[in-house]
TrEMBL record, chain A:
GO terms for cellular component: cortical actin cytoskeleton; plasma membrane. Pfam families: LLGL, WD40. The lineage of its organism: Eukaryota, Metazoa, Chordata, Craniata, Vertebrata. GO terms for molecular function: GTPase activator activity; myosin II binding. Residues 272-372 form the Lethal giant larvae homologue domain. Its main location: cytoplasm. It comes from the Eukaryota. This is LLGL scribble cell polarity complex component 2.
Automatic annotation (TrEMBL), chain B:
Residues 1-71 form the PB1 domain. The gene is Pard6b_1. Residues 234-257 have a biased composition (Low complexity). PROSITE patterns: PB1, PDZ. This is PAR6B protein. InterPro entries: PAR6_homolog, PB1-like, PB1_dom, PB1_Par6, PDZ, PDZ_sf. Keywords: Cell cycle, Cell division, Cell junction, Cell membrane, Cytoplasm, Membrane, Tight junction. Gene3D superfamilies: 2.30.42.10, Phosphatidylinositol 3-kinase Catalytic Subunit, Chain A, domain 1. GO terms for biological process: cell division; centrosome cycle; establishment or maintenance of cell polarity; regulation of cellular localization. It is found in: Cell junction, Tight junction; Cell membrane; Cytoplasm. GO terms for cellular component: apical plasma membrane; bicellular tight junction; cell cortex; nucleus. Belongs to the PAR6 family. Residues 132-225 form the PDZ domain. Residues 228-257 are annotated as: Disordered. It comes from Grantiella picta.
Amino acid sequence: MRRFLRPGHDPVRERLKRDLFQFNKTVEHGFPHQPSALGYSPFLRLMAIGTRSGAIKLYGAPGVEFMGLHEENNTVMQIHFIPDQCQLVTLLDDNSLHFWSLKQHGGASELREEHRFTLKGPPGSPPSATQVTAVLPHSSREVLYLGTESGSIFVVELPSFRVLEDRTISPEAVLQRIPEDNCSRRSCELVEALREHPKNPDQILIGYSRGLIVLWDLQNNKATHHFLGSQQLENLYWQRDGSKFISCHYDGSYTQWPVSSDNRQPEPLENTVPYGPFPCKAISKIYWQTTKNGLPYIIFQGGMPRASYGDRHSISVIHGSQQTAFDFTSRVIDFFIIFSSDPAAEFDDPSALVVLAEEELVVIDLKSAGWPAVHPPYLASLHCSAITCSHHVSNIPLKLWERIINAGSKQNIHYSSMPWPIDGGTNIAPDPPQRDLLLTGHEDGTVRFWDASGVCLHLLYKLSTVRVFLTDADPNDNMNTLGEDEWPPLRKVGTFDPYSDDPRLGIQKIFLCKYSGYLAVAGTAGQVLVMELNDEDAEHMVDHAEADLLQDQEGYRWKGHEKLKTRDGPVRFEAGFQPFVLVQCQPPAVVTSLALHSEWKLVAFGTSHGFGLFDHQQKRLVFVKCTLHPSDQLALEGPLSRVKSLKKSLRQSFRRIRRSRVSSRKRRGGGGNASEVQEANAKFDQDALQEMELAPVQRKIEARSAEDSFTGFVRTLYFADTFLRDSSRHCPSLWAGTNGGTVYAFCLRVPPAERRMDEPVRAEQAKEIQLMHRAPVVGILVLDGRSTPLPEPLEVAHDLSKSPDMQGSHQLLVVSEEQFKVFTLPKVSSKLKLKLTALEGCRVRKVTVANFGSCKTDDYSENDLAVLTNLGDIQIISLPFLKLQIRYPCIRKEDVSGIASCVFTKYGQGFYLISPSEFERFSLSTKWLVEPRCIVDMPEVTSNNHVHKKSGTENAARKS
Amino acid sequence: EFRRFSLERSKPGKFEEFYGLLQHVHKIPNVDVLVGYTDIHGDLLPINNDDNYHKAVSTANPLLRIFIQRKEDADYSAFGTDTMTRKKNVLSNVLRPDNHKKKPHIVISLPQDFRPVSSIIDVDILPETHRRVRLYKYGTDKPLGFYIRDGSSVRVTPHGLEKVPGIFISRLVPGGLAQSTGLLAVNDEVLEVNGIEVSGKSLDQVTDMMIANSRNLIITVRPANQRNNVVRNSRTSGSSGQSTESSLPSSTPNILGSLLQGEEESDEEDIIIEDSGEPQQIPKAAPTSESIESLSQIELLHESTQNGFLPSSEMNLHHSAGSISMEYEVPDPGCKSLEEEGTIITL
């Protein structure tokens, strides 16, 4: 008997659960939050990005990615690949060095941290003596040169990190060979750059911060040349043949220096301030790339005129008469050039410029005319405008998939056709099982369609709803179209643009029917747009309809934002999803729920005032229902009134503070002597402290009542063909659940297809259920006679689902934030319930039906509820018996935005935001797992350092 | 008016019959009256059920003086110990209640007019230092009225005394249910909510649990003031054998489990309005076979008798609550003030 009461005692079920459920965080999509360092291995053709939280991520060919995390969670300052090895070294801001390697394990490569090391000076030396500022992995792969703040260069052995003390290059040793009238000890403070001679591994170039540059001979342990720069040094770059090098400086200049074998004191060949003559900002990094035609590419970061363009984040490319300053919307972290890595090649022949900015990765094709950008297959900036909502659609039919890609490709014509240049490693993950779309709604009124099938989250198509509306910003007013002779020749690149013209444009709800290609999108100002996929550009009118959700409620005034103004006349839309009808909710409060039934051609929408049903075939409002409680003043007046009260309370508290200051000052004036004042102050502090102790954080325990605020807020809408009135006839129905625990059911009469345009759709309220615990209703679901959730509209018509069982009796599942309840239909009587909050103290935040397949047998699968709670736990609850199957901790409970952003897929996967720009992907299923699996082969290295790219050619062959 | 009639002492019959007889002899068939008698000590005592009626008849020596008052203008203060001797002329008091008009009295009526607001339960299974309080919330007329906060308490662990985080009552709202029971006080440590231990749970979690259970809240506290504890004798410690332990007895989860099940049953029911008609409570679907619920119901009965409850009396109470809720069936379907729960036990 007890067994029935307690879950988890049936061994057969326990075994089955192991075959069905498993929790994994599989991959992070998007752009790393707060990147801080960039590295590139031309040998492996892999790029590495370090972040301020100590993560390091490696990217190669699409699908090839690795992630590592430094235990210390400190900012990664520098990343250096060991030449011709699957190894890299990172420097953190706590001055620790970490040695990572890629090793094959179980058929796939893995990134592992192998050693760590912190440079220690002799006892009593200042910390600056060992503060690492420059790192040079030597091409011998045996040692690492570490330049420090004190000017000393330490040599450590790899991979053991043993300090070779006898090889330390001290400032004293450097100064021995330099005439004293030019330099002093201070010239050798802080090593800014260390560069190995490209042809002679025994020579390294040492650049000191104050401008002194020394060519050091490692064999003889002496300086062979020194170069006296007059400006503070930023960086150094060797030309390919080793005859010259470039130094760039704090004043925005760069200098070319010759390296000759004679002993003459070298004089600079050329000293240029590219954006002079007015004071310029520093050039922090420079490349000098040779080409066959003789004209070099000079590529540098910064150097903009300080006064007028000092705030720009730019990288300039100069090639003969062509010059462009690529202008980034966020700070440039670092950049590198992809060029010919074959040491036997005579020229650099740069092919691409890769720039890591704070908020995005931009790759510029240097081979094609006009230097177009390359569309990155990964590292997409999800947050180019802030994400406001997400919607996932599994298993997209091929036809729709192709049409979306087609629409997207027309938007991407300005991108370069160059294949992705960072193509190291091989993706060995199996092909994704199905085509999945992740749709993200953004603050600027756009919806982005992402290919979420595999490891690389890739932008397919971007939809903008802005065209329908009149906004303050004129779309033709492009700030970046500059004239021909504009100087500097700035060109805006990248997509990161966090500034929204109008917050009312923000997308709040998305609903896509994958079979019909109908899309409904709803926004912040009560706008609901219904769209259809069109493969061609078109110019047409958008029909307008208003839905007055307040109906007969009178005497209330909406104090929130106004509705968006619409454009009159026909609007030109590009190929893709084109809106054909706009339903405007009144008052224009944010749309809180949305449902689309493509078979019945109906769209339902809800706000904090009520909900409505619109027939988008006849373009007619079927009905509206006001859900407001008469006492809910807050909902009626809109969000502004709340802001006002907040403002008021802020003002009051400021006033209080001011008053207390005044009174204490008065007290001071009256008191006279200092000790008395101190005493008074101490007493004042003590009182304040006591008051704080007396009023700890406390929570009121009170039953929810009908008068609570926002009870009318419509949380969920659901269409179902079920038995609403009697058990003999089923009919279309619309269900709505509110924040106050009310469920409304409307019986719909949809005319048959042949008379669809002639007869109106009718609706009649059939039921109203008031949950006594009054918790917000977050999910409504009807189970058919076999206790299977009803299929999506058109799913049966496309032979993708069994038709629902209409013989047995249907059941209604109502999920509130606190409980799961199953009721019978058509007569509503409660059958089962599972209390979550009463027992565990957690509340339901997200709930979806997910299909779980067994990893052991192909023919078994079942539907369960996947639930995310406010504590960040994920629970799987069985259907129809509502038994808790398993629970996994997933998101930290403090991570409110992570929990709010979570979406589940229909096959037991999910996504949530771990930062504004990154989705974490997780899987609850043993069967559907999308995770990176890749191999990075060591290209064969011959003794004379000549690289024979075995795997590279293999890769190419495989790709072709 | 005075009447004199005879009753057979050996076969007094039921109170209902006697009440009918009184109405008959006074020819007041439709008037509600209060019935009282004077016992041998001269106290005026009420007759309102079989037991005190039989008692009254047995004390007749040989006459039994019965007093009848109209219910509307009854003077309840007339009942009680020493009433007959204290008040020299009780009779006149009773017959002329207008003498007392200047001092209105609280109407204390019959048991079925009462409803419980709180109770101390499971006294025999809990350690003496703990108290389990049940708060009955009806409608919205009175707030539960308390606040909780984080704090820390000292526990005896194998490693010695340890400070552990705990949840405490921080404030009682004047006039609230919690305050009016007198069973909860500021700084009482909350140990369990409806049988679930709160240790390891955050303040917000415990808040959500309490609100979710607010219709039938059972909280186990360690009162801050331990002086008011009932000192139990060996009987109770003998029955559980664990009353002196500072931690909860290990057997409680079982009992609590069934308690919860019981609470499931007595829990509120949702309301449905069909076709814009009358609001009704949603019935429980008839169990098709030997369902879990029926099992737990049997258990409830079993456990509650063990805990010293009288299931029948509790049922009575709930019936009375049910009768109150009937008043809330508002004929106007547009009216949204569907406040009431129906706590009908379907045993």
